[in-house]
Amino acid sequence: MTAMIEATNLCKTFKLGTVDVEVLKDIDLTINSGEFASIMGPSGSGKSTLLYLIGGLDKPTTGSIKIKGKELSVMKDKEESVMRRRDIGFVFQFYNLIPNLNVEENIMLPILLDGRKMKDYKDKLEEILEEVGLTERRHHTPRELSGGQQQRVAIARALINEPDIILADEPIGNLDSKTGTDVMKLLQRINIKKGKTIVQVTHSKEAAEYGTRTINVRDGRICE
User: Fold this and answer.
1) CA 129, CA 94: separation in Å to the nearest integer?
2) How many whole angstroms separate alpha carbon 3 and alpha carbon 1?
3) Domain tally, the chain
4) Owning domain of residue 116
5) Residue 209 belongs to a domain with what CATH number?
6) pTM of the full structure
7) What is the per-residue pLDDT across 151-172, written as a single tens digit (0 to 9) for each?
8) Which has fewest Cβ within 10 Å: 90, 95, 99, 107?
């Protein structure tokens, strides 16, 4: 199998005043193409920190991370930014939508940031709107949508650049149980139907079971 994500001897330390707090300790992790991995652990275990390091949103203190075989630490800032836009889609607990943009505009934002032409993605937009069930809501702004619908917009935005990897930080943490189930079924369908490699951080055992593998993190270490 092809390794999409490889972390080797990964450590992350934060400085709080004069005290060094070791959040991640010697993490070795490989996630292969097509996996749906659920990272679980109690609050403060380091699971979200691990996700942010994988996504290049933060840098490790020591150790290395490879995305699709490319070492993040040797990338120039511009190259890493392009990688995050094209190879990785991000889904966050609080959606991170732009309030004054409608559904279509929020979904297409990564295309604009990447300097591409929106007209070239018209068919892709239609396909994704149908996939997430928001065709009829395409001209609505976030304030006109439910939490579940906003998270579907965030998932669609993560998909528009056709990345190989989706990283989701507590994707249903702000939703009721029924809506959360619908969102998890959508992510599972994207994993199976589109072959996307998905890594989610979750507190929920039920959410984790939609994946193909669970990775338990405790006190900064993997304890699978």
Assistant:
1) 20
2) 6
3) 1
4) 3-222
5) 3.40.50.300
6) 0.93
7) 999 999 999 999 999 999 999 9
8) 99
